[in-house]
Amino acid sequence: MPTTMRARTGARSFRRIHVLACATSLATFAWAAPALAQDQGNLQNSTTSQPAAPQPAVPATANTTSAAEAGQPQDAATAQDVSQGNSAQGAGDDIVVVGLRGSLQRNLDLKRTSSGVVDVISAEDIGKFPDSNVAASLQRLPGVSIQRSGSRGEPTGITVRGFGGDFNTTLYDGRRISTATGGRQIDFSTVGVDFIGQLSVLKTPDVSLASSSIGATVNIAFPNPFDHPGFRVAATGSGSIQDRSGKIVPTGGLLVSSTNADETFGVLADVIYTKRDTDTNRVYVSGWPGGNFAPCQLAGSTGTCTPTSNTASAAYANPANRQNLPGWFPQQYGAEQQRVEDERVDARIALQYHPSDDLMLTIDNNFSRQTITQENYAFGVWFNQGDLRNVTLDKNGTATDFTQTGTPTDFTSALNKQILQTNQTGLNVKYDATSNLTLEGDVAYAKSWLNPGDVIGSRNGDIGYGNALSNNLRFTVGGNSKDAFPTISNYGPAGNAAGWADTSLIGSHVTVNQTQHNTDELVQFRGNATWKQDDLTIKAGGQFYQDTFDFRNQSTFTNNFWQAYAGYGGPSRGTSGISPLPASLYQGSVSLNNFIPGFKGSLPPSVFVFSPVAYQNYLTSLGNPSAQNVPGFNYGNVTGFTGTFDEAVDPGSVLKVRERTWSLYFSVNFKTEIGSLPFTFNAGVRNEVTNLVATGQGRLPTSLVTSTADPTLLSIPTYTPVQGVTNTSSYSYLLPSLDAKLELTNNLILRVDASRTLTRPSLSLLNPVLNVGNGQRIGALSASGGNPNLKPYLADNFDLGMEWYYRRNSYLAVNFFLKNVSNFIVGGVTRQGINGLVDPTTGTAASFAVSQQVNGPDATVRGVELALQQVFGDTGFGFQANATFVNTNRPYDDKNITQTGFAVTGLANSANFVGFYDKNGFQFRTALNWRDKYLLQFGQNQNTGSFGSEPTFVNQSFQIDLTTSYDITKNFSVFGEALNVNNNQQSTHGRYSNQLLDVFDYGRRYTVGARYRF
Predict the structure, then answer these.
(1) Which of 445, 444, 442 lies closest to 527 in space, CA to CA?
(2) What percent of the chain has pLDDT over 90?
(3) 292, 304, 296, 228: which is closest to 266 by C-alpha?
(4) DSSP per-residue codes, 54-100
(5) What pTM does this model have?
(6) H or E element, residue 826
(7) Do residues 167 and 161 lie in contact, with contact meaning Cβ atoms separated by under 8 Å?
(8) Fewer CB in 10 Å around end: N or C, the chain?
(9) Backbone angles phi, psi at 800, to 5 degrees
């Protein structure tokens, strides 16, 4: 289909979706109309009588308050009518609404009074946030979806209007936060949620805060002493259990806040301990490389078969041997159980000095440390395209059925550990120089560490039997990746399934240890002045930050120690390897029967449970091969090994990036009338200048050799000397923003917004060198290179929205958005030679799949957000519902097999529904979250094919969560939570829907606990 025809068809479909969505929302509202009519007598926000919306003490953009406002208690600022929800007596005669409905009303007040497009989630009370995870809370908002960790099922990241990861900036109290994960986004599972005060999602930029996010800016506001003056205590404790792990683990937190009698000094301290244990079952294909099959490989072919693309070879003379049929095959297939312990400690201390209404000084420190320990027990089988026979290709070219003779079978065990630690210290000073002028200064220092100290990130043990045991394994694709995984048959030694776990035939194979060590150090300063007079606000200021990122990987790949005892041993006719292994190493097994409930497909019977640490200790106990002859040691490929599996730093992984950015901003906000209609106009501009210095260590391989221990491996015994490489670059952008809000009636608001924003490339992409790692596979040679000259993505954004606040705590909103994005960073894959290397298996020039990023094409993203919130008078019942529909002019084209295929990632329609009851101290919520299939990224775990960077799609998902609580007294409550009650499973696929990549079954989680507030 021509491109123009596809675009027109997509536009028509998109318009039909818009019409259907609007009709659905109107029908939902019509259903609710009788309840509205019945409660009309209780309305406070009717068209004839509506009080002015309150001005909360902590607005969505926290740096707009004066010193006096910063010292104003939040409780008094959000006092509401008692009829609208659970309430408590506040200062004086004020009645303060607490509980879910009070929180929802505060959220609406902030959304309504904001000049831009903002969605807010606020705490129901001190020490009580609506959800147990920040990302889980955010997904309740229009246009926001989540990404989950497959192994834990925890929400770790968000997508806003189709833009995820680095496209969204997360701030702590208006400050950037360091993260050592390698990207710019934070892992939301590292943020303790119990004592958060407020989450704000700014979908249009506030130039005084940030313009560095094409998706959204998320501002996390933490509590301070003067938010709730006096002495306050909040404590929470709970136990949770995942249905498969069967182990109850604790979570607990304590917050203490106090101000002195004169309310001039306050201190707040909190600490939270969180533990999650999860057993996850996973079936995987590590990649679907694209390449060319020979006709002789197809089902029904007879005679000898020698697939080749070498036109000079004798085999090429036979047309049946010529590799000219494009297709895709699974690189590696397996299943594993992952047993994960997620342990986190969060702490905060904040001191505030408020000697007068004119001055507020705040010093705070935020600390978090997350330790994830994961035990994996798996099997894996490896395929080479040229070795496949009896191949059936479907209409798309996917190999859905084939056999491979002598398929090596591996059983693996891994002990993975990841520690992510972050500490941020900040000082903020607000001074009301006059009744109109407020001056603010803010300085912060943050540092984040990934795997600090001597931790080993991953210890791996790999055992099994090799390709000499004559098993003619068969692989069959059984259906769509959303409900089926592939089946293997004829497995086991010589195709004997009963011998699948015969330990007498199993020997040692490869042993991989590797650790990623990162640090991210961030220094930032912001200073601004705000002039407020009547309906005019003028703001001007500047910001500076320096982000220094250090990246280093060390592993046994670098020194080739991973192959020390490869080869499987005698039963597999290996010239190296230890077999049989001591029976004491085997600690049982995990059954693969009904491994992924609800999915079609067949797996072998089990995988072994054994400790990789004990396995490595056993191999070390055999002695020092450099000092004595050790039978089974791989003398043919490994040198310098003295008995211990020490890691060595990979020079190609060493990267240091220093990024400095200077920003100046200016904005004007005024309120007036247009034909007696209230009109708010906000215009701002931000100029950002960025200087980058990227330093790496480059080296190139000088030869490739085959492995005597594993016929699927190629080793790199020598490299050129390491050389330091430094690259500098800079760029500057002017980023304007305009917001206009017209109140057509007391309840009806029209919004128009336009802005330019940018998103900087991930720091890990800026490496100036080409990295060719050791441990290459035959037919799957790969290398990767960064690009320090990458420029940011740029987006011109437009919003048009209508909001109808038809009664207190209820509203209907429609928001259309359009984003024209340029400078997309494309992760292309090209086939090329490196340093004149020759492939010893073919005798021809070695061809590497080289991944590298460049700035490339433009794209347009457009969509609509629909939101409806309804509270049914004083019944306690209500609901929130929203839906987002997105589209683009650059969808993925699965027929494009060029090296530079491109599409916008992250785009998916989504919908959320939260039904709740909140009255008389009892609260119950049901949350339903749905997200359609979307393109997550270009690249797979094994991406070595000939057709560029293969895609990873995430299948449609739908999850149901339940929460409830009951206030036994005004200070003490109990609560419960059931997550993923419908046992939603996360699955991904490659270019086509039957190319399964991963399916994770992470089960349900139940939590019971109690809270105390004073």
Answers:
(1) 442
(2) 58
(3) 228
(4) P--SS-SSGGG--HHHHTS-HHHHTB--GGGS-EEE-STT-EEE-HH
(5) 0.85
(6) strand 825-832
(7) no
(8) N
(9) -135, 120
Residue 317, φ and ψ in degrees, nearest 5: -65, -25
Q: Of 715, 457, 781, 414, which Cα lies nearest the Cα of 564?
A: 715
> Tell me: the pLDDT tens digits for 781-805?
888 777 888 899 999 999 999 999 9
Residue 764: what pLDDT? 75
What digits encode the pLDDT tens for the residues 169-210?
889 999 998 888 877 777 777 777 778 888 888 999 999 988
Which H or E run contains 825?
Answer: strand 825-832
Contact 62, 86 (CB under 8 A): no
Distance CA 295, CA 316 (A): 12
Distance CA 60, CA 286 (A): 43
Interacting residues of 345 by C-beta distance below 8 A, sequence separation 6+: 271, 272, 273, 274, 367, 368, 369
Strand partners, 356: 359
Supply the DSSP symbol for 992. S
Q: Check residue 134 and report its DSSP letter.
A: H
Least confident of 59-68, 457-466, 574-583: 59-68
Give the whole-angstrom CA distance, residue 329 versus residue 290.
7
Confidence of residue 76 (pLDDT cuts 50, 70, 90): very low
pLDDT at 404 over 80: yes
Q: What are phi and psi of 34, to 5 degrees?
A: -60, -40
Q: Round to whole Å and give the CA distance between 788 and 763.
A: 9
Pick from 796, 802, 795: nearest CA to 752:
802
Would you say residue 467 has pLDDT above 80?
A: no
CB atoms within 10 A of CB 672: 11
Nearest by Cα to 566 from 632, 640, 618, 645: 632
Average of per-residue pLDDT values in the chain = 86
- Distance CA(145)–CA(580), nearest Å, equals 50
pLDDT, residue 373, reads 95
DSSP category for residue 505: G
Dihedral, 492, 496, 499, 500 alpha carbons, nearest 10: 30
Tokens representing 39? 């409660």
Three state DSSP letters for 363-394: EEEEEEEEEEEEEEEEEEEECCHHHCEEEEEC
In this prediction, residue 776 carries a pLDDT of: 80
- Give the Å distances, CA to CA, from 38 to 41, 43, 418: 8, 10, 56
SS3 585: helix
Looking at the DSSP bridge assignments, the partners of residue 973 are 967, 1011
Residue 231 CB: number of other CB atoms within 10 A?
10
Backbone CA torsion sign across 31, 37, 38, 42: positive
Structure tokens given for 328: 């895709």
Element (H or E) spanning 18, and its range? Answer: helix 3-38
Bond into 580 cis (ω within 30): yes
Q: Of 519, 180, 192, 134, which is closest to residue 345 (Cα–Cα)?
A: 192
- Residue 923 pLDDT more than 60? yes
Are the beta carbons of 380 and 473 closer than 8 angstroms? no
Say what the pLDDT of residue 91 is: 41
CA dist 688 → 179, 443, 475, 538 (Å): 21, 18, 54, 20
What count of other Cβ atoms lies within 10 Å of the Cβ of residue 945? 24
CA count, 13 A, side-chain hemisphere, 592: 24
The per-residue pLDDT for range 88-131, each reduced to its tens digit, is: 444 444 444 557 778 888 888 888 888 888 888 887 766 667 66
Cross-strand pairs, 801:
751, 815
What's the rounded Cα separation, in Å, for the pair 819 and 163? 11
Length of the chain as a residue count:
1014
> What's the pLDDT tens digit per position in 927-947?
999 999 999 888 888 877 778
Structure confidence at residue 70 as a pLDDT band (50, 70, 90): confident
User: Could you tell me the two tokens for 411?
Assistant: 């059983």
Q: What is the mean pLDDT of residues 440-468?
A: 92
